[in-house]
Amino acid sequence: MSAIDTLPPLREVIAKHQLSARKSLGQNFLLDLNLTAKIARQAGDLSQCDVLEIGPGPGGLTRGLLAEGARKVVAVEKDTRCIAALQEIATAYPGRLEVINGDALKIDPLEHLTPPIRVAANLPYNVGTELLVRWLTPPEWPPFWQSLTLMFQREVAERIVALPGTKAYGRLAILAQWRAEARIAMSLPPGAFTPPPKVSSAVVHLTAQPEPRFPADAGILSRVVAAAFNQRRKMLRASLKGLAPDIEDRLTAAGIKPTDRAEQISLEAFCALAREIEKT
Ligand code: SAM
């Protein structure tokens, strides 16, 4: 019998530990272990990796990650009620699960995990986006993670993988695609969760690239993209005029028409513009 078979069904775990879902913590649990195993498989080969899981809740995805052979899982959960339930999983997998009762926004992953590190999470939407932006903009590249496998609202997932010329294309797409490869790995209907959220969800898988796709200074690119998409309906010569007095010339030098709008500009062209702006 494998370790996972010795653990009770998640509904029993929830009843035993009185884990009624709390809206304030964005709790929509995954109770189908076939589904959590499938999500864990999207994270790739875990056998040589430590896995950081954020928001394990009652531990459905945690079980999937361990059963998929993760070398070690470090699970960070804010809700103290879940900790005893997670400790039962740790007992079934001796030495392979470390449970941290804390806020994912406040921990330093490298204090707890050894590279190579993969990240997997089914997180509340607001925390997920904040962490994703943070993980995509570290002071140094490559980042601490090799891959991120994260659940988002379908609409946010589409913004991460969006291409130019679409409504979903914006800052998140540029951040995600500049130094990572991003794809939607799975779609999930509201009914996959307990309780069901109002909207559909999707799992996004991001793989860190060793080098940026196109050269650019991270800080300048970030400022250009933020200014361009903050006023996405304006022509770039207007939305970017605060970045350089001769912005029209710099746009032209980067191969961009000053009358274009942010939505039309490829990642490559944004990087070319960041390089032009960097020139004194
Ligand atoms: N992973 C579990 C599953 O799939 O069933 C639970 C998912 S539920 C959407 C999100 C989980 O994240 C909850 O258990 C919640 O308590 C936890 N959480 C919310 N904010 C958090 C934070 N800042 N740091 C760590 N965990 C957090």
UniProtKB/TrEMBL annotation:
Name of the protein this chain belongs to: Ribosomal RNA small subunit methyltransferase A
Compartments, as annotated in UniProt: Cytoplasm
Family the UniProt entry places it in: Belongs to the class I-like SAM-binding methyltransferase superfamily. rRNA adenine N(6)-methyltransferase family. RsmA subfamily.
GO MF assignments: 16S rRNA (adenine(1518)-N(6)/adenine(1519)-N(6))-dimethyltransferase activity; RNA binding
Gene coding for it: rsmA
Enzyme's top EC category: transferase
Keyword rRNA processing: yes
Known role: Specifically dimethylates two adjacent adenosines (A1518 and A1519) in the loop of a conserved hairpin near the 3'-end of 16S rRNA in the 30S particle. May play a critical role in biogenesis of 30S subunits.
CDD domains: AdoMet_MTases
Record-linked InterPro entries: KsgA/Erm (IPR001737), rRNA_Ade_diMease-like_C (IPR023165), rRNA_Ade_Mease_Trfase_CS (IPR020596), rRNA_Ade_methylase_Trfase_N (IPR020598), rRNA_adenine_dimethylase (IPR011530), SAM-dependent_MTases_sf (IPR029063)
